[in-house]
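A quick aside before the break. I want you to see a complete sequence-to-structure record at least once, exactly as it would be stored in a machine-readable document. Don't worry about memorizing anything.
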Amino acid sequence: MDVDGTTRPDHPLGHLRQFVRRKRNREACELCSQELSGEHSHLLEIPTRKLLCSCEGCSLLFSSQASSRYRRVPRQTRKLLNFRMSENDWDALLIPINMAFFSKSGPTGNVTALYPSPAGATESLLPVEGWTCIVQSNPVLNEMEPEVEALLVNRLLYSQGQGSAEYFIAPIDECYRLTGLIRMHWRGLSGGTEVWQEINNFFQQLNSKCTVAANSYA
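That is the input. The structure line, written in C-alpha coordinates, reads:
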Protein backbone atom coordinates (compact mmCIF):
# COMPACT_ATOMS: atom_id res chain seq x y z
CA MET A 1 0.00 0.00 0.00
CA ASP A 2 1.51 3.29 -1.04
CA VAL A 3 0.51 6.82 -0.04
CA ASP A 4 2.15 9.40 -2.27
CA GLY A 5 1.81 12.89 -3.65
CA THR A 6 0.73 11.86 -7.17
CA THR A 7 2.56 14.85 -8.58
CA ARG A 8 5.44 12.87 -10.07
CA PRO A 9 5.21 12.65 -13.90
CA ASP A 10 5.61 8.86 -13.78
CA HIS A 11 2.78 8.33 -11.30
CA PRO A 12 -0.44 6.91 -12.81
CA LEU A 13 -2.42 9.73 -11.18
CA GLY A 14 0.13 12.45 -11.80
CA HIS A 15 -2.10 14.15 -14.39
CA LEU A 16 -5.18 14.46 -12.16
CA ARG A 17 -4.67 18.14 -11.42
CA GLN A 18 -4.27 18.91 -15.12
CA PHE A 19 -7.30 16.78 -15.96
CA VAL A 20 -9.53 18.76 -13.56
CA ARG A 21 -8.02 22.18 -14.26
CA ARG A 22 -8.12 22.08 -18.04
CA LYS A 23 -11.91 21.79 -18.08
CA ARG A 24 -12.00 25.56 -17.57
CA ASN A 25 -10.24 26.33 -20.85
CA ARG A 26 -11.09 25.59 -24.46
CA GLU A 27 -9.87 22.09 -25.20
CA ALA A 28 -8.17 20.58 -28.22
CA CYS A 29 -7.42 17.03 -29.28
CA GLU A 30 -4.06 16.11 -27.81
CA LEU A 31 -3.19 14.07 -30.90
CA CYS A 32 -4.19 16.34 -33.80
CA SER A 33 -4.98 19.69 -32.07
CA GLN A 34 -8.55 19.86 -33.43
CA GLU A 35 -10.79 21.97 -31.22
CA LEU A 36 -13.11 19.88 -29.05
CA SER A 37 -16.63 20.38 -27.78
CA GLY A 38 -17.53 20.08 -24.10
CA GLU A 39 -18.42 16.40 -24.47
CA HIS A 40 -15.64 14.46 -26.15
CA SER A 41 -13.76 11.18 -26.05
CA HIS A 42 -10.73 10.27 -23.99
CA LEU A 43 -7.92 7.87 -24.74
CA LEU A 44 -5.88 6.13 -22.07
CA GLU A 45 -2.19 5.88 -22.87
CA ILE A 46 -1.51 2.44 -21.40
CA PRO A 47 2.22 2.69 -20.56
CA THR A 48 1.88 5.98 -18.68
CA ARG A 49 -1.77 5.72 -17.54
CA LYS A 50 -2.25 9.24 -18.91
CA LEU A 51 -5.67 10.38 -20.07
CA LEU A 52 -5.73 12.27 -23.36
CA CYS A 53 -8.56 14.40 -24.72
CA SER A 54 -9.35 13.19 -28.22
CA CYS A 55 -11.48 14.07 -31.20
CA GLU A 56 -13.74 11.31 -32.50
CA GLY A 57 -11.52 10.62 -35.51
CA CYS A 58 -8.33 10.12 -33.48
CA SER A 59 -10.22 8.15 -30.87
CA LEU A 60 -11.44 5.67 -33.47
CA LEU A 61 -8.14 5.57 -35.37
CA PHE A 62 -5.71 5.05 -32.51
CA SER A 63 -7.86 2.78 -30.37
CA SER A 64 -8.64 0.47 -33.32
CA GLN A 65 -5.02 -0.41 -34.04
CA ALA A 66 -4.15 -3.91 -32.84
CA SER A 67 -0.72 -2.89 -31.50
CA SER A 68 -1.82 0.53 -30.29
CA ARG A 69 -0.55 1.99 -27.05
CA TYR A 70 -3.88 3.77 -26.64
CA ARG A 71 -7.25 2.48 -25.52
CA ARG A 72 -10.50 4.34 -25.94
CA VAL A 73 -12.33 5.10 -22.71
CA PRO A 74 -16.01 4.09 -22.86
CA ARG A 75 -18.61 6.82 -22.38
CA GLN A 76 -21.31 4.74 -20.70
CA THR A 77 -21.72 4.31 -16.94
CA ARG A 78 -23.75 1.34 -15.70
CA LYS A 79 -25.33 1.27 -12.26
CA LEU A 80 -25.35 -2.29 -10.93
CA LEU A 81 -28.51 -3.60 -9.32
CA ASN A 82 -28.55 -6.52 -6.88
CA PHE A 83 -24.82 -6.25 -6.34
CA ARG A 84 -23.60 -8.75 -3.79
CA MET A 85 -21.02 -7.50 -1.31
CA SER A 86 -21.26 -8.36 2.35
CA GLU A 87 -19.67 -6.44 5.20
CA ASN A 88 -17.07 -9.20 5.46
CA ASP A 89 -16.33 -8.89 1.73
CA TRP A 90 -15.79 -5.15 2.07
CA ASP A 91 -13.72 -5.46 5.25
CA ALA A 92 -11.49 -8.03 3.57
CA LEU A 93 -10.47 -5.42 0.98
CA LEU A 94 -8.90 -3.28 3.75
CA ILE A 95 -10.29 -0.01 2.35
CA PRO A 96 -10.40 2.47 5.28
CA ILE A 97 -12.94 4.81 3.66
CA ASN A 98 -16.37 3.92 2.29
CA MET A 99 -15.60 4.87 -1.29
CA ALA A 100 -13.14 3.45 -3.82
CA PHE A 101 -12.77 2.31 -7.39
CA PHE A 102 -11.24 -0.93 -8.61
CA SER A 103 -9.62 -1.43 -12.02
CA LYS A 104 -7.95 -4.42 -13.63
CA SER A 105 -4.66 -4.38 -15.48
CA GLY A 106 -4.86 -5.97 -18.92
CA PRO A 107 -1.37 -7.56 -19.09
CA THR A 108 -1.21 -8.90 -15.52
CA GLY A 109 -4.84 -9.16 -14.46
CA ASN A 110 -3.94 -7.49 -11.16
CA VAL A 111 -6.67 -5.38 -9.58
CA THR A 112 -5.91 -2.13 -7.81
CA ALA A 113 -8.11 0.00 -5.60
CA LEU A 114 -7.80 3.74 -5.28
CA TYR A 115 -9.37 5.83 -2.56
CA PRO A 116 -8.93 9.34 -1.13
CA SER A 117 -7.04 10.16 2.05
CA PRO A 118 -5.92 13.39 3.76
CA ALA A 119 -2.42 12.77 2.35
CA GLY A 120 -3.71 12.40 -1.21
CA ALA A 121 -4.72 9.46 -3.34
CA THR A 122 -3.89 6.04 -1.95
CA GLU A 123 -3.45 3.03 -4.20
CA SER A 124 -3.73 -0.53 -2.92
CA LEU A 125 -3.08 -3.81 -4.74
CA LEU A 126 -5.93 -6.18 -3.88
CA PRO A 127 -5.44 -9.81 -2.86
CA VAL A 128 -6.36 -12.03 -5.81
CA GLU A 129 -8.59 -14.17 -3.61
CA GLY A 130 -10.66 -11.23 -2.41
CA TRP A 131 -11.36 -9.93 -5.92
CA THR A 132 -12.06 -13.43 -7.28
CA CYS A 133 -14.69 -13.93 -4.58
CA ILE A 134 -16.43 -10.66 -5.48
CA VAL A 135 -16.46 -11.54 -9.19
CA GLN A 136 -17.87 -14.99 -8.46
CA SER A 137 -20.73 -13.33 -6.58
CA ASN A 138 -21.17 -10.70 -9.30
CA PRO A 139 -20.54 -12.13 -12.79
CA VAL A 140 -21.40 -8.76 -14.35
CA LEU A 141 -17.85 -7.70 -13.41
CA ASN A 142 -16.54 -10.06 -16.09
CA GLU A 143 -17.87 -7.48 -18.58
CA MET A 144 -15.64 -4.75 -17.17
CA GLU A 145 -13.04 -3.68 -19.73
CA PRO A 146 -9.47 -3.78 -18.34
CA GLU A 147 -7.65 -0.48 -17.85
CA VAL A 148 -10.49 1.81 -19.00
CA GLU A 149 -13.41 0.77 -16.77
CA ALA A 150 -13.63 0.36 -13.01
CA LEU A 151 -15.97 -0.84 -10.32
CA LEU A 152 -16.86 2.37 -8.48
CA VAL A 153 -18.23 1.81 -4.97
CA ASN A 154 -20.01 4.49 -2.94
CA ARG A 155 -20.89 3.41 0.62
CA LEU A 156 -20.83 6.86 2.21
CA LEU A 157 -24.55 7.28 2.97
CA TYR A 158 -24.92 3.55 3.66
CA SER A 159 -22.20 3.70 6.33
CA GLN A 160 -24.16 6.50 8.05
CA GLY A 161 -27.45 4.61 7.90
CA GLN A 162 -28.89 7.17 5.44
CA GLY A 163 -29.14 5.19 2.23
CA SER A 164 -28.02 2.21 0.20
CA ALA A 165 -24.58 1.40 -1.13
CA GLU A 166 -24.12 2.21 -4.83
CA TYR A 167 -22.09 0.21 -7.32
CA PHE A 168 -21.20 1.31 -10.86
CA ILE A 169 -19.11 0.09 -13.75
CA ALA A 170 -17.75 3.49 -14.69
CA PRO A 171 -15.31 4.88 -17.27
CA ILE A 172 -11.89 5.38 -15.74
CA ASP A 173 -11.94 9.09 -16.59
CA GLU A 174 -15.01 9.56 -14.38
CA CYS A 175 -13.18 7.84 -11.53
CA TYR A 176 -10.13 10.04 -12.03
CA ARG A 177 -12.39 13.10 -12.13
CA LEU A 178 -13.82 12.13 -8.76
CA THR A 179 -10.33 11.64 -7.36
CA GLY A 180 -9.23 15.00 -8.75
CA LEU A 181 -12.21 16.77 -7.18
CA ILE A 182 -11.39 15.26 -3.82
CA ARG A 183 -7.73 16.30 -4.09
CA MET A 184 -8.71 19.85 -4.97
CA HIS A 185 -11.30 20.34 -2.24
CA TRP A 186 -10.04 18.24 0.68
CA ARG A 187 -9.31 20.33 3.79
CA GLY A 188 -8.00 19.14 7.15
CA LEU A 189 -8.34 15.60 8.46
CA SER A 190 -12.05 15.12 7.74
CA GLY A 191 -12.10 16.78 4.32
CA GLY A 192 -14.33 19.70 5.23
CA THR A 193 -17.89 20.54 4.13
CA GLU A 194 -16.95 21.56 0.60
CA VAL A 195 -15.40 18.25 -0.43
CA TRP A 196 -18.39 16.21 0.75
CA GLN A 197 -20.73 18.50 -1.20
CA GLU A 198 -18.57 18.00 -4.29
CA ILE A 199 -18.72 14.22 -3.81
CA ASN A 200 -22.50 14.37 -3.40
CA ASN A 201 -22.84 16.47 -6.58
CA PHE A 202 -20.61 14.05 -8.48
CA PHE A 203 -22.76 11.03 -7.63
CA GLN A 204 -25.97 12.92 -8.35
CA GLN A 205 -24.66 13.73 -11.84
CA LEU A 206 -23.46 10.16 -12.33
CA ASN A 207 -26.87 8.76 -11.39
CA SER A 208 -28.62 11.17 -13.75
CA LYS A 209 -26.79 9.89 -16.83
CA CYS A 210 -26.09 6.21 -16.09
CA THR A 211 -27.91 3.18 -17.42
CA VAL A 212 -29.05 0.32 -15.18
CA ALA A 213 -27.50 -3.13 -15.46
CA ALA A 214 -28.94 -6.11 -13.62
CA ASN A 215 -26.47 -8.50 -12.07
CA SER A 216 -26.42 -12.01 -13.54
CA TYR A 217 -25.55 -15.23 -11.79
CA ALA A 218 -24.14 -18.43 -13.11
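Two observations worth writing down. Residues 32 and 135 are 39 Å apart (CA to CA). The chain has two domains: 8-72, 78-214. We'll return to this after the break.
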